[in-house]
Design goal:
- This protein is an alpha+beta fold.
- Among the domains are: 38 residues, no CATH class; 167 residues, Thiolase/Chalcone synthase (Peroxisomal Thiolase, Chain A, domain 1, 3-Layer(aba) Sandwich), CATH 3.40.47.
- It contains 15 helices and 14 strands.
- Strands 1, 2, 3, 4, 5, 10, 11, 12, 13 and 14 form a 10-stranded mixed sheet that branches. Strands 6-7 form a two-stranded antiparallel ribbon. A two-stranded antiparallel sheet has the order 8-9.
- The chain is globular.
- The protein starts with 6 loop residues before the first strand and ends with a strand.
Length: 429
C-alpha cells in the first residue's frame, strides 16, 4: 500500500549467484549473507551498531542457522543490542524482509534497517524416509541382543533411499504439483509454445552476459573468496553459448510426455544473498545519508496455487491502479524469471481482455509491456533463483538500472509458491 511517509533506499549489494553443481556449494547461507552484508556496511556513514534492526528472508535455513537473521547480524558486527530476525514467504522471503522493514519504519519502531534475503540451495538437505526413521526409533529402543537381531532382520536397504529436501520444498502441498508443473499449467492456458520459452531463455542469457561485459552489475556485486583463495566475482550460471538449437535438445522435466518446461527455460538452483539498507527521512537527516531511491508502494496478492506464476500480475496491478499509472508509465520492470513460461504468461494476462475483466476487475486489458523495458539485464533463467534472495535482487537491480538509464519509476514483482505474488514500486532519487 501507499507509504504515509518516505521510505528511502540508501544502498544495496549482493553476492554473485552461484549455480548448484550436484553437491554442497562452497558457502553456507550465513557465509553468503555475511560477506555481502559486511561489504555493504563497510561503505556506509554509520556504524553497524547504529542499525535499529536486521531482517533477513530465508526459505531454507540450515539446522544450525535457524534464526539466520540474528546469526548474520552478529557475524557482521552489529553488536548484541541490534535485533536480528528471520522471515519466510517462499520465493519472496527477501521482499518480505523489505516489507517488514517498511512496516516497522512506518509505525515508528525503527528508522534505519538492513533487510535482505539469502538461500544456499545447493546445501538443501537430504532426509531419511519415514520408514527409516521408524526403524531407527525401534533400533534405539531395543535393549536386548535378541531384539536388536530382530530389528536387523526387519531392515530393508530401500529404507536408506534419501528424500530430496528441495523437491519437497518445491512441491505445493495443496495441489501436489511441483512449481514447474504450475508453469506447464500456464503454458497450456495461454498457448505458450516451447520455441517461445526457449527464445526467452536465450535472450535472458544474452542480456546477463552483455550486462556483465558492460559492468552493469559492478556496483551491486560483492566478490566471494573461498578459504583456498578461489575467487567468485561474477554470476556463474550464465551460458554465453546458449542457443535455441541447444535448448531444443533438452527434454521436458516436469511433464515428460506432454510438457514444454525444461531445465533450460527454467531458473537455476542457485546460492546467493542480497541486501538493501532502508531509512526513514529522520534517519537520513540524522546520519547525513544520500538515498539512491525510495519505495513508493508495495502489494501482496493471492491466487490459485496451481497458477502461482501469475502472482506478479495480481500484485502489480493494484499498485498501478492506486498510483494512477499505466504500464507504459513505468520506465523499467523486473519480473523474476522463475520460468520463462511464467513470465510470458504474465505478459499475456495483461494483454488479455477477458483475463483482466474476470480476474483483475478491469474494464479492458491493462496493456502491453515493452520487451525493451522488461528485465533489461536478464533474469533468473540465466542468473539463478536463490529463493530467499531474489525478491531483494530485483528491487536492487531495477533501481540500479534506473540510475544507469536515466529512468524514474521501476516496478519489481515476483511469483511465490503457494499461490501468491509480491510487487514493489520504486523511484530513483
Amino acid at each position: 500500500m501507499t507509504m504515509t511517509q518516505p521510505i528511502y533506499i540508501i544502498d544495496g549489494a549482493r553476492t554473485p549467484f552461484l549455480k548448484a553443481r550436484n553437491g554442497p556449494g562452497p558457502f553456507s547461507a550465513g557465509d553468503l549473507a555475511t560477506a555481502s552484508g559486511s561489504a555493504l556496511l563497510a561503505r556506509q556513514r554509520f556504524a553497524p551498531e547504529q542499525l535499529d534492526e536486521v531482517i533477513l528472508g530465508c526459505a531454507s535455513p540450515s539446522a544450525d542457522e535457524v534464526n539466520i537473521g540474528r546469526v548474520v547480524a552478529l557475524r557482521m558486527g552489529c553488536g548484541i543490542q541490534v535485533p536480528g530476525w528471520t522471515v519466510m514467504r517462499n520465493c519472496a522471503s527477501g521482499m518480505q524482509a523489505l516489507d517488514s522493514a517498511i512496516a516497522n519504519i512506518l509505525c515508528g519502531r525503527a528508522g534505519l534497517v538492513m533487510a535482505g534475503g539469502v538461500d544456499a540451495l545447493s546445501r538443501a538437505p537430504l532426509f531419511y524416509s519415514d520408514r527409516m526413521v521408524r526403524w531407527f526409533a525401534g533400533w534405539m529402543q531395543a535393549r536386548s541382543l535378541g531384539r536388536k537381531l530382530d530389528m536387523l532382520r526387519q531392515f530393508r536397504p530401500g529404507y536408506l533411499a534419501p528424500v530430496i529436501g528441495i523437491m519437497k520444498g518445491l512441491t505445493d502441498p495443496i495441489v501436489g504439483q511441483l512449481m514447474g508443473q504450475t508453469a506447464e499449467n500456464l503454458a497450456w492456458q495461454f498457448g505458450i509454445g516451447r520455441d517461445e520459452m526457449d527464445a526467452f531463455a536465450v535472450e535472458s542469457h544474452r542480456r546477463v552476459a552483455a550486462a556483465h561485459d558492460a559492468g552493469h552489475f559492478a556496483r551491486e556485486l560483492v566478490p566471494l573468496i573461498e578459504r583456498d583463495g578461489t575467487l567468485h566475482g561474477v554470476d556463474d550460471g550464465v551460458r554465453r553459448d546458449a542457443s535455441i538449437q541447444g535448448l531444443a535438445r533438452l527434454k521436458p522435466f516436469f511433464d515428460k510426455k506432454y510438457g514444454r518446461v525444461t531445465p533450460g527455460n527454467s531458473s537455476q538452483i542457485t546460492d546467493g544473498a542480497a541486501w538493501l539498507i532502508l531509512a526513514s527521512e529522520a534517519a537520513v537527516e540524522r546520519y547525513g545519508l544520500a538515498p539512491i531511491g525510495r519505495i513508493v508502494d508495495r502489494q501482496w496478492a493471492g491466487l490459485e496455487p496451481e497458477l502461482m506464476g501469475l502472482g506478479p500480475v495480481h500484485a502489480a496491478t493494484p499498485i498501478l491502479q492506486r498510483q494512477g499509472l499505466a504500464l507504459e508509465d513505468i520506465d523499467l520492470i523486473e519480473i523474476n524469471e522463475a520460468f520463462a513460461a511464467q513470465v510470458l504468461a504474465c505478459l499475456r494476462a495483461w494483454e488479455d481482455d477477458e483475463y483482466c475483466r474476470s480476474r483483475l476487475a478491469l474494464p479492458v486489458a491493462l496493456g502491453r509491456v515493452d520487451p525493451e523495458r522488461l528485465n533489461v539485464d536478464g533474469g533468473a533463467v540465466a542468473l539463478g533463483h536463490p529463493v530467499g534472495a531474489s525478491g531483494v535482487r530485483i528491487v536492487l537491480h531495477v533501481l540500479e538500472a534506473l540510475h544507469r538509464t536515466g529512468g524514474r519509476r521501476g516496478l519489481a514483482s515476483i511469483c511465490i509458491g503457494g499461490g501468491l505474488g509480491g510487487a514493489m514500486l520504486v523511484e530513483a532519487v
